[in-house]
Amino acid sequence: MYRLRPVASQIVKRIGFGMPQLTEAAVEVIEEHPSTTAFSKPVLMLDEDRAKVTGAQAATSLAEQWAIIDGRNIVHEATIRYIFRDVLATPFGFFTKHQGFARFGPVRYAEMMSAPIERRASGFSAASPITQQYFGHWVCDGLITTYLKRSHEELYFPSNPTWTHSKEYLDLLKIERLRPDYVIFDEMSYCRDIGQNAGRAARLERLQSKVQELFGDVGVPGAFIRRGRTGVSRVLLNEDEVVDTLSARGFAIVSSTDPLEHILRSVSGAPVTVAMEGSHWNHLFLASRRDALHVTINPADLFNNIFADFIDHTPGQLATTVAIREGDGYRVDVSNLLRLIDLHA
Q: Which of 78, 91, 118, 306 sits at 20 to 30 Å (Cα–Cα) from 319?
């Protein structure tokens, strides 16, 4: 019974049989794009801001972040397609007869036992653990992975229902996906698509071009997106000061809670973007000029520069300034923020 496959995979794992790798479980393995090695360009940062950094975001380290800041040689992994037969796809992973892959979060047993399950001949799953966990990765990882779907495949690409902007992206970009959360595929392909190789960079450019073609260049000198209290707590205590300062320069000001079309239409073609580090930055990245300066405001104790991977394959530049912890929030030195913008001008 298909509904019991997640249970079977857990039993197999717990009794010590172990879980096969994707390569071992797939009926066919295809390299879509080869790996490449390249030098990652440095991130623009003021020397005095370096001393403010006290810790890195979870799942990374300060050593890794300083390497990103200074520039480094990096191996961009290959994009590999794995083809499986007789698969149950769910929002928390996909399951063959005894194994589970691309697992994220707990199995929702009660829901799964009563939810309708549809059957399809051929599908492509663009979901991965990271796209299911973080909205920003759903946008800049998941959406470009959908371009790997082959013409005879139907797209399986679930998202967290609380992410209202995800549905808006799908509608705006006219991406058709299967609606049910639970689907049995006679054959399904899944791509391990995490390396910023040349093929992936081309697909990212394709996504940017689609977004920018919708709204053109609205002529703003820059854009700032308010984070407010959304997402992981990174409250910018002097956000109003930042808004007033950038507004005086003619920057478009939007909020992460605004409708997606309003955000993209307001900032399209911006040559400079400013945002607190976080998923909402992706809106600015996709809609701005490809050679834009992107300034992130980094929490001193959650320092993270993951966006460097995306910008590295564009003519754009990532810059970062540091906001120091004050109570339950952070405060950025607005003069340093302006210095970064002006250094790149």
A: 78
Q: Quote the distance between the C-alpha of residue 334 and its chain's center.
A: 27
Q: What is the mean pLDDT of each run of 10 residues along the chain (345 residues)?
A: 67 60 92 93 96 94 96 93 96 88 85 90 96 92 97 96 94 95 96 93 95 95 85 82 98 97 98 95 96 97 94 94 95 97 84
Q: CA-CA distance, 286 to 283, in Å (whole number)?
A: 5
**Short-list 123, 133, 120, 121, CA closest to 92:** 133
DSSP-derived secondary structure for 79-122: EEEEEEEEEEEETTEEE-SS-EES--S---HHHHHHS--EEEEE
Here the tokens at position 180 are 């049910």
Residues 188 and 109 in one domain: yes
d(CA 264, CA 193): 26
Say which DSSP state 153 is in: P
Same domain, yes or no: 17 and 155: yes
Find where tokens 């093929």 sit.
199
